[in-house]
Design brief:
Radius of gyration: 22 Å
CATH topology of the largest domain: Vanillyl-alcohol Oxidase, Chain A, domain 3
Strand content: 15-25%
Strand order of the largest sheet: 15-12-14-13-17-18-16
Number of helices: 17
CATH class of the largest domain: Alpha Beta
Helix content: 25-40%
Distance between the termini: 10 Å
Bound molecules: flavin-adenine dinucleotide
Number of strands: 18
Structural class: alpha+beta
Largest sheet: 7 strands, antiparallel
CATH architecture of the largest domain: 3-Layer(aba) Sandwich
Length: 495
């Protein structure tokens, strides 16, 4: 872990060099601008191409975090796998670096490009639901809002993210946890197939029966293997409405919350979820403990299950006893808004939760936020979602290697002053390292204990994929030998 900071900086420098080289290449070829050639190739299609002088370009490079806004040479919005294939082949032939943008939530700039091409999938957001087959097909640029809404029309749902403006693409390809994980596993556990454009431009289907090795790889490390233009998910009958919402407490409630969390862990049967989030938001910057609760069933059962928490004196009660299912993945949108500089981080902790751990966590967080201007919207979330179903699948079954007897912690640090960038990054890394130790994880033998979609880039493939790293690197040589898909966790980087 000591090498993460240096590796991160090295990776950024490599990207900068590549971008400068690209910028140079574009300039030298001004007389015969390569993007003009691409424009000609795409002219008969429905793809849209934006360059820095195009109307709408500024909007097209915006991301969930301002730190990920980069000045791409071209943003191209395809509408089909064929069009994606044209762009990938063109970029490879011209040696222009490219990235794929799904929902745009990566805080490591994995979906942004300085001087290269962005393949922006925002025009590929169709969803089709087959109630008889119990499947949901989602195009590669969908957000979870698209999927939740379409599936709900048929009384169905699949496992997706807890914030519905995140992308189906990035979230699924890295694993995918959500409120339905305790009942149905990860998003990748429900992925039946994916239509993909590979680095050489071929369009293939990856499934248990077609390119099974590729299917193994994309379930956990998918962003490193191609552009997924369509996902096919297994759907499940979904009760509607459900019992869900937020309770906001002062830190003095922590002893009772910790006691409840441990009781929750012991009694949950897969139809409940609880996320404990710590923050000290403006305008008061007073510390609060937010409990996001979900009971996948009727109000009477939800109320009974969460009674010990409901009886506590809360600063705010935003529980909806009959929340329409598609709104469940909006309940923490209010603390996950666009704008500002942000960095995601991740670690894990083991139950039972202790009061000492929670109090130390809060002290560390508020200590940092109180001593730095404009950092109060940062959030640390402990995701208490039963992983029994996740652990029923082995860590070797797919590239994803984070199935263990622990829960995830997600950190989102948010700030405004670019001068704080490095300090926040360092704190985020140290904080998550501390959580892992203090939360009792140490060196887990079962799973890696970090979620690839949360941990900052710069970690080694072994840290992120554990014993699956070597096989992933072999498959990378088969499916992307020139490492064109290198902006997510870079599988080709050695330890
Ligand atoms: C507010 C917030 C809430 C979150 N909640 C959850 C949660 O509940 N559960 C969870 O598991 N994770 C969660 N995450 C983490 C989330 O999984 C990652 O941020 C993920 O990368 C988001 O995907 P995206 O498509 O929005 O991002 P992007 O930045 O567009 O993409 C991330 C990576 O995936 C690649 N990619 C995207 N789409 C495709 C595609 N179709 N084909 C190939 N590559 C693609 C991109 O190239 C990039 O490398 C959350 C993140 C945020 C910011």
């Amino acid at each position: 872990m000591e090498t993460i900071g240096r590796a991160y900086i090295r990776e950024e420098q490599d990207h900068l060099k590549a971008s400068l080289a690209t910028a140079g290449a574009v300039k030298i070829q001004d007389a015969n601008n390569p993007y003009d050639a691409l424009r000609v190739q795409l002219a008969p299609t429905n793809a849209e191409m934006l360059t820095p002088t195009s109307p709408g370009y500024g909007e097209s490079i915006k991301r969930w975090s301002d730190t990920s806004e980069k000045k791409a040479a071209a943003v191209i919005r395809p509408t089909s796998a064929d069009e994606v294939s044209v762009i990938v082949k063109f970029s490879a032939a011209q040696k222009i670096p490219f990235v794929v943008c799904g929902g745009g939530h990566s805080t490591s700039s994995a979906s942004a490009s300085e001087g290269g091409i962005v393949i922006d999938l925002c025009k590929m957001r169709n969803v089709s639901v087959e109630p008889a087959a119990m499947t949901v097909a989602a195009e590669g640029g969908c957000t979870w809002e698209d999927v939740d809404a379409a599936a709900a029309q048929h009384g169905l749902a699949t496992v997706g993210g807890t914030v519905n403006h995140t992308g189906v693409g990035g979230l699924t390809l890295g694993g995918g946890y959500g409120w339905l994980t305790p009942r149905h596993g990860l998003a990748i556990d429900n992925l039946l197939s994916a239509t993909m454009v590979l680095a050489d431009g071929r369009i293939v289907t990856a499934s248990e029966h077609s390119h099974p090795d590729l299917f193994w790889a994309i379930r956990g490390a998918g962003a490193s293997f191609g552009v997924v233009t369509e996902f096919l998910f297994r759907a499940h009958p979904q009760p509607n409405p459900v019992y869900a919402g937020l309770l906001i407490f002062p830190p003095s409630a922590l002893p009772d919350i910790v006691e409840f969390a441990n009781a929750f862990h012991a009694k949950t049967d897969g139809d409940q979820g609880m996320v404990i989030a710590l923050s000290s938001p403006p305008p008061t910057n007073a510390a609060v403990v937010i409990c996001a609760l979900f009971y996948n069933g009727p109000a009477s059962a939800g109320k009974a299950f969460f009674a010990p928490l409901l009886e506590l004196e809360a600063l705010g009660n935003h529980i909806d006893p009959a929340m329409p299912w598609p709104l469940v993945n909006t309940m923490i949108n209010a603390v996950s808004t666009y704008g500002g500089r942000k960095i995601f981080g991740g670690s894990s902790f083991r139950m039972p939760l202790t009061l000492d751990f929670m109090q130390a966590l809060l002290k560390k967080l508020t200590g940092f936020c109180d001593s730095h201007e404009g950092v109060g919207e940062s959030v640390v979330a402990l995701e208490i979602l039963s992983y029994d179903k996740v652990r029923a699948v082995s860590n070797e079954a797919m590239a994803f290697c984070n199935r263990g007897d622990y829960y995830q912690v997600g950190t989102v640090f948010k700030w405004h002053d670019p001068a704080l960038d490095e300090e926040v990054r360092v704190f985020n890394r140290e904080f998550n390292r501390w959580v892992r130790e203090a939360g009792g994880l140490g060196n887990d033998k079962e799973g890696v204990g970090v979620y690839a979609n949360y941990i900052m880039h710069g970690a080694s493939p072994e840290e992120v994929f554990g014993r699956n790293a070597a096989r992933l690197q072999e498959l990378k040589c088969v499916y992307d030998p020139d490492n064109l898909f290198n902006k997510w966790h870079n599988l080709k980087r050695s330890r």
